[in-house]
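Annotated sample (chain length 433).
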Amino acid sequence: MKIISTHKGTDFDALASVVAASLIYPDAVTVMSDNMNPNVKAFLSLHKELFHITAPGDINLSDVKTLIAVDVCSWGRIEGLGKLKDRKDLEIIIWDHHVGGDMNPTWKCQEPKGATVTLIARKLMENRTPLTPIIATLLLMGIYEDTGNLTFSSTTAEDAATCAFLLERKADLTVLNSFLRPAYGEKQKNILFDMMGTTLRRKIRGYKLAFCQVDLEGHVGNLSVVVSMYRDLENVDGAFGIFHEKKKNRCIVIGRSSNDGLDIGKLMRNIGGGGHPGAGSALIQSEFLNPEAVIEMLSELIEGHQRSSVQLNDLMSYPVQTVSSDMTMEEVAGLLREKGYSGLPVVENGAMVGVISRRDFRKMRKESHMKSPVKAYMSTDIITIDASRSPLEAVRLMIKHDIGRVPVIKEGDIIGILTRTDVMRYYYNLLPD
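Output written by the structure step:
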């Protein structure tokens, strides 16, 4: 079974890329969550009969042999398909105008264009695939939205040429304008006023920047539109809105740039998000991070201080001490005492199969249980992190899963281990004592 999917918070470039990909892979099933931008939902509500979309919960993931990921290259941005992540037999095909990611594709087309649609449309042109006016309109909407009507600095000549091609295929600009017109109502206006009132202006590496922080109560749509307006009103090279949802213990970070040198997408990837040179966002879910800390973190990343370049392998411990799954609990206890560790990875035939920690000893009820093998008491819910990820993402994993250590993986092998002490020592100014 082949499936085509895209990122949560689906925008028009994502939807259009999914539809375009379905023309290249007609035997694939389109799988998308209902986590979509409001204007995309409005479009689909009128065109639902034309596009056959399946919810992730309606397919058997064990039947999936090929995942075609469009406008996304990171597992964390795909909703409902997480169980596919560790499948060794899964073929992954990526079409994306973002670079990087952690999906380890079998084949990919990743080029820095204004929109992913441009890359897929190139193949449609090569194949001389016929397009209906409705599909041509949708594809044009995808490019227009992600390039700001061809005004963002990330726009390329090929994006513009693709627009011309789609207009020749009868793409309807009237329909496009009706769905791409951003919603700006009373809620958005109030948020913008709050943003203007909390502005912190800085000049970093020659860039004029504006930061603001706003507490959110309930859902407010089209925040990206508000941040774009905020940047224009502040007349700066880059603007960042930090929207704090206290009840959900998270910050939504949205950035916009009008300067070619200030790559917002790269900044957001450093804190677990993504985007393009001119626009990007990230969701930081942690009760230990506050808006002021986020502003300082962004400032240091822009400044290019050590924090932005530090990788997990700079912080982790190696080589990694492991124990075999048939070692007795008594032997493990002695090793933990001797080395002063609070936990260790458990391996079997060279592969990691679990983690044993001091808290697992609480499961034993009799002294004789100390003679039992580790595999009887170890935790098999393995949480690891890829070596390419950021230290902040390791912090978020530890907090989310309440764990004190995370094995660092590269190409399937354990190359190190990161402890809570390691990250706390590094991020002491972001996390409380």
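Annotation: The CA atoms of residues 315 and 425 lie 10 Å apart.
Annotation: Residues 305-309, 428-433 have pLDDT under 50 and may be disordered.
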